[in-house]
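Moderator note: this is an archived Q&A kept for reference. The question asked for a predicted structure of one protein chain; the sequence and the answer are reproduced below.
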Amino acid sequence: MEFKSEEPHGFGVFIEIIIFAFFNRGDDSMKKQFVLFIAVIFTFLMVSSAYAKKAECPQPRKTKSAPAAIAKKDNSAKANKANGKKLYNKTAKPMACKMCHGDKGDGLGKLGAAFKSPVAPRNFTCSKTMAKVSPGQMFWIIKNGSKGTGMAKMKLKDKEIWDVIKYIREDIMK
């Protein structure tokens, strides 16, 4: 049995080496164990993907409304979307937004997946939910947190909050 790789390195080469080592030993019981191992892994992957959590849309929410003057505010036109993306994905404090809201903004981040409605992180990709959320409301929640949910008060300057809002509204909300 001969194995050739198109790539000079990587995970594929690692797998090829493992397979080559098992199938060139001449030990039939090892071959059977290897095939069984692969079958178990394949089955696990298929079952886990069938039960993958899907983002809820629309999301039932009873988040406290921002004061009217703030709810009407929208300073995102002057905001820096590139900085908003950086804050969302990496540098926001106390933690990056994506940790709860997810890479796609669907509320299924590493930490957010543990929460259930009505306290699950906001799904920014759900247009039915987000149509009712003004930029000012987003600003209020990011600045003050949302009691009764996992949304903590973020330690960001007002301008940085608007940067994050611009990124969410222009790149995540579709």
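Archived answer notes: Confidence is low (pLDDT under 50) at residues 1-7.
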